[in-house]
Design brief:
The complex is a heterodimer of chains A (514) and B (483). Chain A is mainly alpha-helical. Chain A is 76% helix and 4% strand. The longest helix of chain A is centred in the C-terminal third of the chain and has 32 residues. Chain A is globular. Chain B is mostly helical. Chain B contains 22 helices and two strands. Chain B has a two-stranded antiparallel sheet. In chain B, helix 4 runs antiparallel to helix 21. The chains are: A mainly alpha (514), B mainly alpha (483). At the A-B interface, helix 17, helix 18 and helix 21 of A face strand 1, helix 6 and helix 7 of B.
């Protein structure tokens, strides 16, 4: 009990934040009017956002301990608890979830016309389970939310998606479920190996035998790598992203991909530190492959949404690279970049959704000359393009800067190769921008184009603010994670050398063999 | 009080962006900016610096501005010449009836904002921000004509600059931050002694990354964007070549040489020898290529590439005189090159000629323009009493101080080459009879010089002469930088 701080507020803030969207979904269930349903959904998401704010106000940045902890017995027979808590690693994801949910409702306002009730229920359940994942302190509870999230997401893609929606939805579910099964097995093994408990903190303190660590690391890797997604299990992502409705894409890019990265931070690193270090080189290699390969595939995409989807593969490669540098700079960069990616890619998907609503085409070749047709839209699009390409003073630059800084500390070669990913990032974003915004307007779509309205501006502005705010004040976010990340680094490196030392050991072994 | 001065500059800079819908604002903003920069002059000559921190981003990374001698020297030249460029633009754009003039002026002002931002940056992060901003802002200016060649040229331009910045510069900055723990400029370098001893090779690599990352300095082989960018309207070329872009490139290299590495460290590393070689090579090579170009603007572009390497050479020779020569050449070259480009534009607007072989006898039709052109050429060659002489003299002394005979020979050779590619133009213009092939008869009658364009170009030509006779201000500022 020494490394948790019980909730000092006189109400269970994490429970309320998590289950408020569920309540909203329940209310919507009994409504018939589509207009009313939209407003209730909006009100619910805004309420959840407001409720989540005191977490930041009362968060103690000076400790790595779990805070606002709520703990109740749930299934005593298996020592399963209902326990919630946040620390410096998970706290930022909560606000990201609640914020993106509001924006998702806003962008679905007009684009969702059929089965409105079902859509917003699915959206709100997704929000609840996303938050649940980030606040769970019990492995069983975590897994529950992890799987719960799959169902509404499956429905959102499969029912409200594009032409190929069923294929995409099934592919998505198959990939994720296949990964999750391995995690389930890993969980059960962990339960017995760790002294019959599902408590994540307790499990993180046990020093498991190295062989077991390796197997468990692989089992959890299967689940997380699919979610991130890491090369080569990324193939579900472009399909899911492309076919999902805008809100679905925003949530996929903004939150769902982050669950994998969060999983590495919460489970793989602290529970299997030795295995993490043994897998260091393959993991870094996979990350760099994802960065470079993802960027090249992005370059040749002809479909707007697919292009952004593949760019996610490349960007998430940076995130995993940051995480597996295993030093504080890289880890913080990785976490920050997850937030950044959620904001920027979410914004780009919203932009595409907005323009798709008007033209009903996602083929890049159909566009051109938007600068003249929809100038207001282009202003936003320009900002997001610059942000995605890592322009200094904007959020992604800070994330990439930290990750590269960490990568150079861990391995010079790795850092040098991943620089090329940054360059490709600039190329595909600017080329996309050139093809869509410059040149002449396509006469076929010209009369469909009209500029963005107030609702869409309201949905985009918070993201613009965040982009610049994180870009010039990353410390505001980083300060939440400093202590927790430091604790994590100590935990990982406490049982042996750091990233660089492992590399040196590997080198020394190589020398000895010669 | 000093902080508020720098703060006022910032407020003005942001104000321009919105107000710059009329040419009047352009001129006014330029004049006010010039006055403010000039008002910092006495303080800077007293070896003081003016600092203003806008935002703390992370430990060692800040958005921070600082005015020291080097930045004032650069900003002074840029803001002063901007006033002339604006007047000239009015003449050029109206005579040419260009489209999208509002966009043109707005981006022009933004480009200058970024240039001044680079000048007053007090750390690598801030400088990188404005450097990148400048690349992106100038893209629509270069591609202003919006036809196929203009867009292709602009694309090449932006790919070279952004690509090099991302490939080399990001890596260099990240590594610098890792090794030094800060990005803040400091006289004599920022790398701690322990790092200097431990990573000599890595530091050498970082230096080369910087040298090529700042592709705006157009050192070979990364010079290709400059001739490509010639598709821009002439005032933009003038701005690119004389005031903003290329000077930003060499300015940033000077910053890195003097304030990130420091002359002692570079000398110990010996990496400056590579840079000296590349700069010398660029000087001679670009001059030779310039000889072979018939298009006036293309010849000027290769001349710029060659002249820029003078500045780089001055920086990397690392001797006091060469540094003074290099730094003062920023200003000297700026005045001369802007004159030459103004002339090229004036000829194009009045006589519709772009090739050198067509220029026979034009001196009699456009006496003011071609006189100014002659003065500009003399500056490039480095004839005494014109500004270029002063900097070239210092460079030559510097090469002797460094004991490098080859560099001295290269300097002399390039002087000969400069003469060879500039003097024929002047000769043609004044002493050759125009070819009368019958086609252009009647057309020649209405060659008239446009006052809006001629007055600025005469004034900048006069400026080069004044700088040649009274170079004290520039030299003193340059000395202040290296003291």
């Amino acid at each position: 009990m020494e490394d948790i701080i019980l909730n000092k507020l006189n109400y269970p803030i994490l429970t309320i934040t998590t289950f408020l969207p569920m309540v909203g979904a329940l209310i919507i269930l009994f409504l018939r009017n589509d207009r009313l349903i939209r407003w209730v959904a909006l009100a619910t998401t805004i309420a959840a956002f407001i409720v989540s704010l005191p977490i930041y106000q009362h968060f103690d940045k000076t400790t790595f301990k779990m805070q606002f902890v709520e703990m109740h017995q749930w299934i005593p027979a298996f020592n399963i608890n209902y326990s919630f808590g946040v620390d410096g690693i998970s706290i930022l994801f909560i606000i990201l979830s609640t914020l993106l949910s509001i924006l998702s409702v806003l962008v679905s306002w007009k684009s969702i016309q059929k089965k409105v009730k079902g859509f917003f229920i699915a959206l709100l359940i997704t929000e609840a389970s996303m938050i649940g994942i980030f606040v769970s302190m019990d492995l069983f509870l975590f897994y529950l939310f992890w799987e719960t999230m799959l169902i509404p997401m499956f429905l959102m893609i499969g029912i409200w998606g594009g032409q190929n929606r069923v294929y995409a939805a099934i592919k998505f579910v198959l990939f994720t479920l296949a990964g999750s099964v391995f995690m389930l097995v890993g969980m059960i093994v962990l339960y017995y190996a760790g002294g019959k408990t599902f408590d994540i903190l307790a499990l993180s303190k046990v020093n498991y035998p190295v062989t077991l660590q390796i197997w468990l690391f692989i089992a959890f890797l299967a689940a997380f790598a699919v979610k991130v997604p890491m090369f080569p299990v990324h193939t579900w992502l472009p399909d899911a992203h492309t076919e999902a409705p805008t809100a679905g894409s925003v949530i996929l890019a903004g939150i769902l991909l982050k669950m994998g990265g969060y999983g590495f931070l919460r489970f793989s690193l602290p529970m299997f530190p030795e295995a993490s270090k043994m897998f260091l080189i393959p993991m870094i290699a996979l990350s760099i492959t994802a960065i470079i390969y993802g960027a090249y595939v992005t370059l040749m995409q002809k479909d707007l949404k697919r292009l952004i989807a593949y760019s996610s593969v490349s960007h998430m490669g940076f995130v995993t690279l940051g995480i597996f540098t295993l030093n504080a700079t890289g880890l913080e960069g990785g976490i920050l970049q997850m937030i950044n990616h959620g904001v920027v890619t979410g914004a780009l998907f919203m932009c595409i959704g907005i323009i798709y609503e008007r033209t009903h085409t996602r083929v890049i070749a159909d566009y051109g000359g938007l600068a003249r047709a929809v100038p207001l839209f282009v202003i936003f699009f320009s900002i997001f393009t610059l942000a995605a390409s890592g322009f200094p003073g904007m959020n992604s630059f800070m994330g990439e800067f930290l990750i590269l800084s960490g990568a150079f500390k861990a391995t010079l070669t790795g850092g040098a190769i991943s620089i090329w990913g940054v360059v490709l990032g600039v190329i595909y974003m600017f080329w996309l921008y050139y093809r869509v915004v410059c040149k002449d307007v396509n006469p076929v779509i010209e009369h469909h184009l009209y500029d963005i309205d107030a609702r869409e501006i309201v949905a985009l502005i918070p993201l613009v603010i965040l982009i610049f705010f994180i870009g010039v004040q990353p410390e505001a976010l980083l300060s939440y994670m400093h202590v927790s990340v430091q604790h994590l680094v100590e935990r990982v490196n406490g049982v042996g050398g750091g990233g660089m030392e492992v590399l040196n050991t590997v080198k020394a072994v190589g020398e000895a063999l010669k | 009080m000093l902080v508020s001065v720098a703060g006022a500059v910032l407020i003005l800079l942001s104000g321009e962006k919105r107000r710059n819908l009329r040419e009047f604002w352009s001129v006014a903003a330029g004049a006010i900016m010039f006055l403010i920069v000039a008002s910092m002059l006495p303080a800077v000559l007293d070896s003081k610096t003016i600092e203003y921190t806008l935002l703390h981003i992370m430990p060692g990374i800040e958005l921070k501005f600082k005015a020291d001698a080097l930045s004032v020297l650069f900003a002074l030249g840029a803001s002063f010449l901007w006033i002339f460029t604006t007047f000239y633009s009015i003449g050029y754009m109206r005579a040419h009836k260009e489209h999208a003039q509002t966009r043109y002026y707005a981006y022009f002002a933004l480009a200058l904002t970024n240039t001044i931002g680079v000048a007053f940056s007090s750390n690598l992060f801030t400088m990188f921000l404005f450097y990148e901003g400048l690349s992106i802002i100038t893209y629509p200016l270069v591609g202003h004509k919006q036809d196929a060649t203009a867009l292709a040229g602009a694309r090449k331009y932006v790919i070279y600059l952004l690509g090099a910045a991302k490939v080399f510069l990001v890596a260099a900055i990240v590594l610098t931050y890792n090794l030094a723990g800060t990005l803040e400029f400091a006289k004599g370098g920022i790398f701690p002694a322990a790092v200097q001893a431990a990573h000599p090779i890595l530091l050498s690599v970082i230096f080369l990354l910087y040298l090529y990352g700042f592709a705006k300095c157009a050192i070979m082989p990364l010079h290709g964007w400059l001739p490509a960018a010639m598709v821009a309207p002439t005032p933009v070329s003038a701005l690119l070549h004389a005031v903003a872009v290329v000077k930003t490139g060499v300015f940033t290299v000077l910053r890195v040489v003097l304030f990130v590495f420091g002359t002692d460290l570079l000398k110990n590393l010996g990496v400056n020898q590579i840079a000296v070689f590349m700069a010398t090579f660029t000087i001679v090579m670009a001059s030779v290529i310039a000889l072979s170009r018939d298009n006036l603007k293309a010849r000027l572009a290769f001349s710029t590439i060659s002249q820029l390497s003078y500045i780089i050479l001055g920086a990397v020779l690392l001797t006091p005189s060469s540094l003074v020569g290099g730094i003062s050449h920023i200003t000297m070259h700026a005045f001369a090159k802007i004159t030459l480009f103004f002339c090229a534009g004036s000829i194009y607007i009045s006589a519709h000629k772009t090739e050198i072989s067509q220029l026979s006898g034009i001196g009699r039709k456009m006496p003011w323009t071609m006189t100014a052109f002659a003065i500009g050429s003399l500056n490039m060659i480095g004839v005494p009493s014109v500004g270029g002489f002063i900097s070239k003299w210092n460079l030559a002394v510097g090469s002797l101080e460094a004991g490098s005979l080859i560099v001295l020979l290269a300097l002399l050779a390039s002087t000969v080459l400069n003469t060879a590619y500039f003097m024929p133009i002047v000769y043609k213009a004044f002493f050759e009879k125009e070819h009368d092939d019958g086609h252009h008869n009647g057309h020649h009658e209405d060659i008239k010089e446009n006052p809006f364009m001629v007055v600025p170009l005469c004034l900048t030509a006069l400026g080069t002469v004044i700088l040649g006779i009274y170079p004290d201000l520039v030299i003193n500022l340059a000395r202040e930088v290296i003291r």
